[in-house]
Design goal:
Elements lengths: L7 H11 L3 E2 L11 H12 L13 H15 L9 E5 H13 L5 E6 L4 H8 L3 E6 L9 H11 L2 E5 L11 H14 L2 E5 L19 H4 L2 E6 H4 L7 E5 L2 H12 L7 H13 L4 H23 L12 E4 L2 H6 L1 H12 L1 E2 L1 E2 L14 E4 L4 H13 L6
Parallel strand pairs: 1-10, 3-4, 3-5, 5-6, 6-7
Antiparallel strand pairs: 2-8, 7-8, 9-12, 11-12
Helix pairs in contact: 1-14, 2-11, 3-11, 4-5, 4-10, 6-7, 12-15
Bound molecules: pyridoxal-5'-phosphate.
Length: about 375
């Protein structure tokens, strides 16, 4: 089941190019990250002595910055030398965790809709992927279905919160329930927390590793690219107890081995700068404004848009999308309205009966979002 076809993102980005459409499909920001971070990396780029391989598990100043970040934000105690692995974005963090921990024949669960690479990586590990649907339209945790899956045998859970694509932020009650199940049924958790600093409506991200009964069975993943709007740098990290991190590092050494020292230095500078609240305050304020522009605009056009509590995507549907299906609707919108969104069918193992919704990314500048809304408005007649 390892995919041999281009992903839905590649397919939709191709359509965006073909039709010269505004791309609210792929989740990369259309604006720059902080100049001071680029300067920190640039200083090393022009100096001698920084162009070779670095420590396999990560440049120590970055590992130390990650350990301080986890301590300052979440009270997690990590040893920079032992409990952290710097990866090529969270994508490699996912690969190293899944390949390091899942054994052939294991059953690995994740909530649907899911981030697209999960099933592919699980299948690469020779394990079985099981999707557990969150209950639309509010994407609630179905506790009974989750318990059934645990009882049937679950060896690992990939838990993404704040959640792409639904905008769900798992609350304390849900996390406690999941952590209790993990302890009772003895499975590990890969906590994909790349949107940890993007929460809205008074929600707060709580890492599942901060719960006592999940701490010693969780690998947490973070992404520099998401928090600092520099996705192209592909710097991420995995952290957790030595009992799990030994295997994650072992997988990482044969995936990418290490990331450029120059970029790791910039990422360390970035994480250390979070000691002052200024950056994150303006980061969240900017995203909150873009979220409001997109969600209000889509609702004004008659789309049903569930509240987005975290991450930078909004799901939208309307009777037309439901009638013709999200995949077809996405192609028509790209071609006629010149707006690209991602049909969410691809985020289900068996899309039969899945909600017909489109995912719009709001990690774009106001002008792009406004332009997309204007294009949709011009073609509103399509939606009948
Ligand atoms: C839920 C989720 N996990 C992981 C990633 C990958 O992050 P990175 O760009 O750091 O590899 C993404 C990127 O979109 C994501 O949305």
């Amino acid at each position: 089941m390892f995919p041999t076809q281009p992903s839905i993102f590649a397919e939709m980005s191709k359509l965006a190019l073909e039709h010269d459409a505004l791309n609210l499909g792929q989740g990369f920001p259309s604006f720059e990250g902080p100049a001071a971070i680029k300067e920190a990396a640039a200083r090393l780029l022009v100096e001698d002595g920084h162009q070779q391989y670095v420590r396999m598990a990560g440049h120590l100043p970055l590992c130390e910055a990650i350990a301080s970040h986890q301590k300052n934000f979440y009270g997690l105690e990590l040893n920079a030398g032992e409990h952290i692995c710097v990866t090529a974005g969270a994508t490699e963090g996912l690969a190293a965790t899944i390949l390091g921990l899942a054994k052939p024949g294991d059953r690995i669960c994740a909530f649907e809709p899911f981030y697209e690479c999960y099933p592919a990586l699980v299948s690469r590990a020779g394990a079985h992927f099981q999707g557990l649907r969150l209950r639309a339209p509010r994407y609630e945790l179905d506790r009974e279905a989750f318990l059934n899956a645990c009882e049937a045998g679950c060896d690992g859970l990939i838990l993404n919160t704040p959640h792409n694509p639904t905008g769900k932020v798992f609350d304390e009650d849900e996390l406690n329930f999941i952590a209790e199940c993990a302890a009772k049924y003895d499975f590990w958790i890969c906590a994909d927390e790349v949107y940890e600093h993007l929460t809205f409506e008074g929600r707060q991200h709580r890492p599942i590793a901060s719960l006592a009964n999940a701490n010693d069975r969780t690998v947490s993943l973070g992404s520099f690219g998401k928090t600092f709007s520099m996705t192209g740098w592909k710097i991420g990290w995995a952290s957790g107890p030595s009992s799990l991190m030994t295997s994650v590092r072992a997988a990482h050494q044969f995936l990418t081995f290490c990331q450029p020292k120059i970029l790791q230095e910039g990422a360390a500078h970035a994480l250390n700068s979070l000691q002052s609240p200024d950056y994150l305050q303006s980061f969240v304020t900017g995203y909150n404004q873009r979220r409001k522009t997109l969600c209000d605009g889509l609702r004004e056009l008659g789309f049903d848009v569930p509240q987005v509590n975290g991450a930078y995507f909004a799901l939208a549907t309307n009777p037309w999308v439901k009638k013709i299906g999200a995949r077809r609707a996405a192609s028509i919108l790209a071609e006629k309205a010149k707006v690209v969104a991602i049909p969410c069918n691809s985020f289900y193992i068996d899309p039969l009966g899945c909600p017909q919704t489109l995912r719009f990314a709001f990690c774009k500048d106001e002008k792009t979002i406004q332009g997309a809304l204007k294009n949709l408005k011009k073609h509103q007649a399509l939606f009948v």
